[in-house]
Design brief:
mainly alpha, Arc Repressor Mutant, subunit A, globular, binds FE2/S2 (inorganic) cluster
Length: 56
């Protein structure tokens, strides 16, 4: 599933970023550019990132 349409960031990419050690939205933004355009995806991206961290 695509989370960030503006920057073509999928849920899978967020999973991979968390697996590589990303743990904050700032880091996620830096790594994937998620939420850097319209910003609409930020809430969803944060939720997915937290879910991934909980699963680890
Ligand atoms: Fe992510 Fe627009 S959908 S910045």
């Amino acid at each position: 599933m695509i989370v960030c349409v503006c920057n073509n960031v999928s849920e899978k990419k967020i999973h991979q970023a968390v697996a590589m050690g990303v743990s904050t939205m700032a880091e996620l933004r830096e790594q994937l550019d998620v939420g850097t355009c319209c910003g609409k995806c930020a809430g969803c991206a944060r939720k997915i990132m937290r879910q991934c961290m909980d699963e680890q």
